[in-house]
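Database export, one record per block. Field names are fixed; values are copied verbatim from the stored entry.
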Amino acid sequence: MVIAGSPSTAHGAVWRGVTVGLSAVRRRSLTVEKKPTPKKPTPKKPTPKKEHAVDVLDDLLDHDLRLVVVGTAVGDCAARRGHYYAGPGQSFWTLLARAGLTPRVLPPPDDATLVEHGIGLTDLVKIEAQSHGRQLVFDVPSLAAKLSEHRPRWVAFNGKVAATHCARWAGHRPPGLGLQDWTFAGAPVFVLPSSSGANRRRDYDGRPDRESWWEDLGTLVRKEDQPTQATSA
C-alpha cells in the first residue's frame, strides 16, 4: 500500500522517512499470534483398596496325618466346583486308590473325607487358580510353617513344579521323581508325576507310566502304618 502524497519506492512505501515493505505489512496484518491452550491436569484415578486374600480352596489338614499331598495350584475347574482335583482328565483319585491309599476311588465332592484316611491336601499357591500363571505366588515359607505345625509322616508333591520351588528354598537341586534324600518340614519327601490330564507322555523319569510311582509311595506310607513289633532275642 502506498500512502498518498508520499514518494514510493520499488519495494514499499515511505512514511515519514521510513520505508515499510508491503510484504511485511501484509504478513503482519494477516498473522494472528495464537496463544497455546493450557492443558487441563489429568485427574488421578483412586487406587483400589486391596482386599484380604482368600484361599481358593481350604486346606484339608489335621495333625499327625499319614501323608499330605501338596499340589502347585488349584485348577480352574476345581476352583469353580469347590473341590480338589475336580477337573476333567484328572487322575488323582484313581491314582490314589491304585496306590492303596484309599479303599476305593473317591469322587471329588468327597474330598473332605480324605482326612479320615489319614491323608491331607494343600497347594503351594493358595490365593490364585492355575490360569493366572503370571500372578502365582509360591509362598514356600508359609507352606513349611503349615506342615511343621501339623507334622505329617510323609510329604508328597503332586508334580515337579511345587517340588522344585520347595527344594530350592531348602537349598537343594530341582528333584526328579521318587523318594528324595532331603526332608521338608521334618518329613521325608516323595515327588510324584503330576496327576493332571495334561501330563501325558511316554516316559516318566525312565518309567512308561505314572501308576508305578504312585504305587511306590503307597508302599512306603503303608509300611509305616504297620506297628513296629518288638522281636525277642
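Remark 1: The helical segments are 22-30, 76-81, 92-98, 140-150, 160-169, 211-225.
Remark 2: The longest helix spans residues 211-225.
End of record.
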